[in-house]
Amino acid sequence: MTRVFITGVGFITSIGNDAATVEQNLRELRHGCIAYPPFQKPEVPVKVAAPVREFNTEPDDPEDWTLPARYRVRREVLRSLGPNTLYAHCALQQAIADARLGEADVSNDDTGLYAASGGSPSILARLVNRMHQHGVMKCPPLGIVASIAGTVQFNLVANFKIKGASTGFSSACASSSHAAGFAFDEIALGRQRRMFVVGAEDGNVETILPFAGMRALSLNPDPDTASRPFDVARDGFVGTGGATVLVFESEAEMARRGVTPYAEVIGWGQASDGHNVAISHPEGAGLAAAMRHAFQSAGITAAEVDYVNAHATSTPIGDISECKALRTVLGEHAARVAVSSTKALTGHGLSLAGAMETGFCALALRGGFTPGSAHITHLDPLCEGLNIPRVTTADAPRVVLNNSSGFGGANVCLVLRRAS
Known about the structure:
Blueprint: E1 4-12, H1 19-28, E2 34-35, E3 48-49, H2 75-78, H3 83-98, H4 103-106, E4 111-116, H5 121-134, H6 143-147, H7 151-159, E5 166-169, H8 175-188, E6 194-201, H9 205-208, E7 242-250, H10 251-257, E8 263-272, H11 285-298, E9 307-309, H12 316-330, E10 338-340, H13 343-346, H14 353-367, E11 399-406, E12 410-418
Parallel strand pairs: 4-5, 4-6, 9-10, 9-11
Antiparallel strand pairs: 1-7, 1-8, 2-3, 6-7, 8-12, 11-12
Helix pairs in contact: 1-14, 3-7, 8-14, 11-12
C-alpha cells in the first residue's frame, strides 16, 4: 500500500480564508458566528449563522458577485458557478499554490478530484421558477450545471483541466469525509498519484434555513453561545458555508517534488447505523463501528490516539450519541484522549464539514496544538468521562481522528498521523 500525505490546503470558511488565519482562530478560539442579516425578520425563528466573509454572492447574476482581489475568475467561468463552486474554485487555487503544484502536476492522468456538495438550492429554485413563469427556453443554458449536486466537480474538473478520477459524493454531512476516504484509497492502491478532496456549501438562506423545519437549528440569538457542542444548554446547530480543498499525494510524488507535508493519512473506516433517516443511533453504534474499522485500516489501537475532532454539531441527540460511541471505542483511554468540536467556532458546514475539519486536524498536527471545544459553560452530564478541553492547548498530537456523520446514519472516521 502506498503511503498518503496531505501536502496542501485551501480554506474559505467562516473563521478565515487562508490557512494562517484559520490556524490563528483555532488557537485563539475565535468563532465566525454573527446575527445573520437575512434572518433578522419576525417570521424567522433562527437568528444566527456563520457566513463566509469578503465574498458577496447575493446578486442573481454571478457577474455582479464580488470576491477578494487575490482571486481572478473569468466571466465565462462565473456563468456556470454557484456560490459553493466559487468558494471551491478559490480554495483550490489556494491549495495548488500551497502544495507548490505546477500546471503539469494538476492536469495529467494521475491527478484526480473527489468533491462533495449539496448543490445550490437558491440557483435551482430560481431556475425552476423561471421555467414555470417564463418557459423553459428562457432559462439560462448553464443553470443546471450551476445548481445541481454535482456542480462542484463538474466545474472544477473542467476549469482546472483535471484528467484523473473524478466524481461527487452524496451522504449528507458525511459527504466530504467519504470523498477523502475514497481519495485515500485511489492513492494507496496505486490508481492515482494525487487527489484533490473538495467540500463546499453555499451557506446562505436556502441551504441553512430549511433545517429549522426539522428543529435542528439553534434558536439562541446570541452569536457567542449559539453553537456550543457538549454544553447542557445546546439547542441545535448554526449553519455555515464555504469550501475546503485538501491535496492528497503519494509518498513518491511528495518526495519527487521535495515538499513538506502537513500530515499523513493512515486509514479510514465507515459504517451505517441502520436506525433512522435523520436521527443518530442512540448508542452511537454506527459511528463506533466506523471508528473500529478506521483503527483496523490504519493499524492502530485506541492507546495511540491523542485527539478526536468530533462531528458534534451542537444538537441534543447527536452529541450524546457520539459521546457514547467514543466511550465505547476508546475504553480505558477515554479520559485521556482530547475530544473537541471545532463546530463551536465555524458552525456546521453540512457536506463541507468533513473536509474542513480534516484540514483543521492537518493544521493541528503540523502546528503542534490541540483545538479546544469552545462555549461550554456547563458540560452535559452525559458527556462525562471524556476529556473535552475548553481551551486550545500546546499539546502536540501524533495521531488524530476526524469523525463525520450524516443522514441515514452514514458514519466516517478518518485517521491522520503527524508526518515523519
